[in-house]
Write a structure and sequence with these properties.
- The complex is a heterodimer of chains A (about 150) and B (about 400).
- Chain A is an all-alpha fold.
- Chain A folds into two domains: about 50 residues; about 80 residues, no CATH class.
- Chain A is built from eight helices and no strands.
- The longest helix of chain A has 23 residues.
- The relative contact order of chain B is 0.16.
- By secondary structure, chain B is mainly α.
- The chains are: A mainly alpha (about 150), B mainly alpha (about 400).
- At the A-B interface, α1 of A face α5 and α7 of B.
Chain lengths: ~150, ~400
Amino acid sequence: MRVSFQDAKHLISLVGLFAAAVGVFVILRAAVVPAGFGKYGHYRAGAIDDNRARAVKFAGQGECVYCHDAQLQVRDSGRHKTISCEACHGPQAKHVASDGKEKPAKPDVIPLCLNCHEKDAAKPAFLPQVVKADHYTGTTCSDCHQPHNPKM
Amino acid sequence: MVHAIPGVEGFMYPNEVELQWGLLVVVYPYITGLVAGAFILASLERVFRVEAVKPTYRLALLTALAFLLVAPLPLQLHLGHPERSLEMYLTPHKESAMAMFGFVYLWYLMVVLLVEIWLDYRADIVRRAQSETGLLRIVYRVLTLGSMNISPASLHVDERLGWIMTIVGIPSAFMLHGYVGFLFGSIKANPWWSTPLMPIVFLFSAMVSGIAGVQGIYMFSMWVRKKTIDMRCVDTIGTYLFYAFIIDFSLEMLDLLHRTYESSESFASLDFMVHTRLFTSQIVLQIIVGTLVPLAILAATQVLTLAEQTRKRMYATASVLTLIGIFFMRWNVVIGGQLFSKSFLGYTTYKLEFATREGLLTAGVLMILPLFILWGLVKLLPPWTEETAS
């Protein structure tokens, strides 16, 4: 069968429709994908600067030792020696910057201890673990266990 | 003191106790499988010139489209934040199989299926754009894309291009469902899923479910419309269903045989699971009710000379049982793969909820929704050959 251009003309609309769809996609993509996306990896490059601009919240335990050396010595003599101060006391950059005037909140003892010491089959056996329902006697953990050196 | 968690037996890691992938993740491969299978059945007529299945050609295409439109919904409901799914297209991660699958889906929907349906229906659309009135006339006029040319030469162009689209469509349909199998088969940490056979098993089970689905929908719609079922058509589809099913079953048995003979460290755990928690869904529903019984029925139709009415009943029964069997094959893959611990020392239980975002009710609605869409598509674009002939 002889086919002229006129007989295939309806396909131009079809191709046009696809071209329009691709066009809309390209415009939409340009409009919504943030600038710098993909520059370093599968993320927005500006996110690095945004993070850099955020205020530092942790002081690092090198700062703690200046004033709290006694507590650090107790900690270093026990099983908590690898736990950094701010792991339990929270981020203390403001405390350091204000020369101790900005007082940190006291840790909420029972939930804090249970973060690590609640019984869980997936935790390694060397980690002392308790079942709160069986172990709790109405006092707080720190009544019996000195937190900086938890040996009883 | 040992704290027993209800439904958990032996040792489970904490993140294994509750299943992350529920019923909707079962429904997802089931629906995409029906799409791929229905399309492959349609391509039989088009590419391989199997004239006998012509009465189901258009119905199969519309079935594929109806189910394909619903296919992303289970995943979007499962993940939440459906508006984020667009990001898969805007900023796709080249290393993510799922992101690349989004493009396979888009290609299959936009380029293969819609174009093929448009080309095939164009003459009907133009005729209806001229004969209908009111809103329907506008709808059909939009669907003509501005061209009223249905000269024999232009229809010849459609026919040739449609044929090319079907040729392109077959590997696309294979990719569409092979990819779903690939997603599971490539999860190397899970011995229930991790097998290179998975994409091929998924593909053949997709063909089986799609063929059975179209067979069932065709027979049901003929019954509703009080029209005569084309026996040559259903006999031929029955034969193809039988062949595809034998290949599918052989592949699954090959996988089972391989696992049993290899007896890797996970085998005892998986074997225990199949004999206990998966016994009903795997042995009873998938293998016996959903595979062996329909295979026996289909085999009987191949070797025995049976009355027309008997054959109709047998095909209908085989189609329904096949669809049940393939559904439970998906169930056993998705749910089964999460019931055992990666320590191979424990088992958990899947708790199916009812009226929740990922519950039974939602899954039921998602399974029925494509049938409503199909009903609408059939009203808009009637696939019946007798009407086209008139």
